[in-house]
UniProtKB/TrEMBL annotation:
This enzyme's EC code(s): 2.7.1.180
Catalytic EC class: transferase
SUPFAM superfamilies named in the record: ApbE-like
Keywords: FAD, Flavoprotein, Magnesium, Metal-binding, Transferase
Gene3D superfamilies: ApbE-like domains
Domain of life (superkingdom): Bacteria
Stored PANTHER family: FAD:PROTEIN FMN TRANSFERASE (PTHR30040:SF2), THIAMINE BIOSYNTHESIS LIPOPROTEIN APBE (PTHR30040)
Protein known as: FAD:protein FMN transferase
Amino acid sequence: MGTAITLDLADDLPPARLHELADQVFAWMREVDARFSTYRADSEVCRFDRGEVLLSEASSDLRFVLEACADLWGDTDGFFDAYATGRLDPSGFVKGWAAQVASDRLLAAGAANHCVNAGGDVRVRGCSPSGEPWRIGIRHPWDPMATCLVLAGTDLAVATSGVYERGRHVLDPRRGAPAGGLRSVTVVGTDLGVADAYATAALAMGVAGIGWLDRLADHTHAVITDDARQFHSVNLPLTG
């Protein structure tokens, strides 16, 4: 899906087992890419969008994603819209969801201490190799070599949507035009797919997205506006 995937396994398991777990994670991510990449004409999501795959013929993963996107459209008052570009593109949910599934599988397999990073959408559990909580840096929206905030925790799903890599690629679905007003939105929760979609929706809302994020239950956030103002939840899990 045009992004890099990194994995950090911090459990004291035999090397062969760690390699096996890592191989399973990357095999899953390759499977997700083959099914959901909008860059690949032969992906299931592209074939479904062209009408070459019927809903009754779709994989269980595609049906799940379509249902989740429909629910998120309602939860965000239409600002998370998988059809905002005029074609089906659920990437704003899929990347986070895929990393969440990978994390869930690692936990079930006995690897309780890990970090899965899917292009800046991060799911951490347990402790880092140092035995301390994981630290997640939020990229500075104007300086790619710097961070603007650092979060810490042992069970966090951290999703960031911004304009600094792909430009204004997120559309305001009501205007059919690139969203403006916000430079970067980070949402923190426990489900990375949901956090990913919420970050995308808030970016699409523009400055109004700040108030919407303030009202979200069970999530915290950090926002940087186009004019370099920063806002964040009072209970954002920041570290010094």
